[in-house]
Design a protein that fits this description.
alpha/beta, two-stranded antiparallel sheet
């Protein structure tokens, strides 16, 4: 849709803060569950690139990086359309006259770059059959929780998050859209050695964007000159992207996303809670350390309860996270 039509869009109230339903135990909006057969039977292609994340884990950032790589750092080409039109969100079903991700993906000529938040077990099987490339980005649990809470406050296309205290419990129980963070990150981690999956960490991308973008370039089998690489790093930095209307979702009407409540691109940094230590991260070569610091959201009691629950749910996994950079 043209931008002026999007801004003037009026939606039926039934599409706002929609009802939910479970698909194989995973909470989804009812608009997704009602369309699930079509989503499950989506036909991937061998030259598709899928960007997969849990919600609020750096999806849009990764999309912009990939788009800049694919367009050799041409900023104008990367501002040809909104992020959600350039990279169809395959399971996200929207009411008319908005384009649903599935419809956009089916009409898009190859090679396509697509987006999903689906847990690994709900990914349409054609992606595995066609051996499509997948970039997965994982972000630590507490920062995902904080960002997802604020996103749910400003986005009326997802359920009302309730109070902060209520939302913590929903998140821990996996009773939010796309299900459990714990199962999501572990499921994709376990799949990464069996399929063409590049598994990245949000914290690594913040720490050293050049290093992580080089990993993406290698995965995509693409080379760019150093000056183009530096241009990509600059134009996909948080401060620049926050001012980019084709990436910051400000073209959507306030009836869908109200940026006065909380901007879509809020802070882009670690800010989770009161932590007793940095998680030891052997796969990153980070030495265990114990640093006490107070953050903005979790009370001491909430943080202690969250950490106990976290340890139980992540027990036995080789996947570990950093919470500070």
């Amino acid at each position: 849709m043209p931008l002026e039509e999007i801004q003037d869009l009026q939606l039926d109230e039934k599409y706002l803060q929609p009802d939910t339903a479970e698909i194989n135990g995973i909470l989804m909006s009812k608009m997704i569950s009602d369309n699930w057969d079509d989503i499950w039977n989506f036909q991937a292609r061998p030259d598709d690139l899928l960007i997969s994340t849990y919600a609020k884990a750096g999806t849009t950032w990764t999309q912009e990086i990939v788009d800049m790589i694919q367009n050799d750092g041409d900023v104008q080409k990367c501002q040809r359309a909104n992020t959600f039109d350039r990279h169809p969100f395959i399971e996200w079903t929207l009411p008319p006259p908005l384009n649903s991700g599935l419809d956009l993906a089916k009409k898009m000529p190859p090679p396509r770059t697509l987006k999903t938040h689906l847990p690994v077990q709900l990914l349409p099987p054609s992606f595995w059959k066609e051996n499509s490339k997948i970039i997965y980005v994982a972000r630590n649990a507490k920062d995902c929780l904080v960002s997802y809470y604020h996103f749910s406050r400003m986005n009326r296309m997802v359920p009302d998050p309730g109070t902060w205290e209520e939302y913590i419990e929903k998140f821990k129980a996996g009773k939010v859209l796309w299900g459990s963070w714990y199962d999501h990150v572990k499921g994709w981690w376990d799949a990464k050695d069996r399929h063409r999956i590049l598994y990245l960490f949000y914290e690594d991308m913040k720490e050293d964007p050049k290093r992580e973008i080089k990993k993406i370039l290698k995965f995509l089998e693409k080379d760019v000159p150093e000056e183009v690489l530096n241009k990509i790093i600059y134009h996909t930095s948080f401060d620049v992207m926050k001012q980019n209307p084709m990436a910051n979702y400000t073209t959507l009407p306030t009836i869908i996303m109200d940026h006065s409540i909380s901007p879509f691109m809020r802070k882009g940094r670690s800010e989770g809670g009161t932590l007793t230590c940095l998680y030891s991260c052997s796969n990153h070569g980070i030495l265990p350390c114990f640093i006490f610091f107070l953050k903005n959201y979790f009370t001491v009691a909430q943080n202690e309860e969250f950490d106990k629950d976290y340890e139980k749910k992540m027990a036995g996994s080789t996947l570990t996270f950093r919470t500070e950079i």
